[in-house]
Amino acid sequence: MFERIDFGSDLSVYQQIKNLVQFAIAAGALEGGDPLPSVMKFAERLGVNQNTIAKAYRDLVMVGHVKGMRGQGHVVEEGVRAACREQCWERIIARLYEAAGEARAAGLPQKTVNEVVRAAHGSETGPYGPAPESVLALAVKEGASKRGA
Question: What's the burial of 115, exposed, middle or buried (CB within 10 Å: 0-12/13-18/19+)?
Fold first, then answer.
């Protein structure tokens, strides 16, 4: 569930980690009372500094999605799924709206935008990481069709 972050992303590693936990709560993969990985083990698994994990967890505690239990780590708060889902979906929809506007402004056909969204939504990988070559190839295909027109 928390296996992939993108060190080359414009989104900070800490924010990616925070988002991954929130996405898991929103999707029901983590429920109230479920433990989060320990800071040390999570940092080792992702190859990041423990302070990065600790900062993400602190922010999740501050927004009320997670609680820290001294000596026992962090667990998902009870009853936060609906609020977490609404917050996640609102952020994602705003980013999709912005990206769609950029695509329109750049002349990218709606059909291609739909193909990219379909490919991303159907992907088995996590949300962070480079776009697959098959998706990036759509830009070359569209560029070639525009030059030929």
Answer: middle
